[in-house]
Give the backbone structure.
Amino acid sequence: MPVVLSAPQPRTDNGDYPPTKKWTREECEALEQAGLVGVRDYELIGGVLIQKMGKKLPHTRALRKLMRWLNQLFDLCSLQEPGIDVAREENATNNPEPDAVVLRRSVEEIAGSIHPGDIRMVAEVSDTTLSFDLGAKARLYARAGIPEYWVLDVNGRRLIVHQQPEAGEYGSIQAFAEDEMVQTPLTGEATIAVRDLL
């Protein structure tokens, strides 16, 4: 489970939590410039600074395999962009950094930050953060209208493909087991066995 830096706080005598601070991208940039927070140490999700977990060997291996395959299909596949934009109304308090991003055009053509309209697909490789990736992050990406979201579940040895974002949720969520072949509208005629990504 990700480590949350701003909550929970100790309970007061009446059982309620004291007020917590919601962070913005602007404030996080100021923290980085002051050297108080490392640029790759956290992710900003819903105004909460979430410390990134160290990547274990199975995570690193799966991410390399996923990137190798995606790079064979797409020229515009990128590893861990330094944060992407989400829905306009949520952008100030969210700066997610997916493990992989497939873009519609090259990074050199994109001025400023990467907007949802620039993105064909995002992917997370998940070992210790599965419920977070399938919950909060899936809803965040769906509200941004990102057409396809993959979660490669290392421990469960499966791939969960989210498609058809509408009204803040993905209308289609399909889990592919280790021995199944994956093919989606994004990949066209190309297929791959889930086991070859793990």
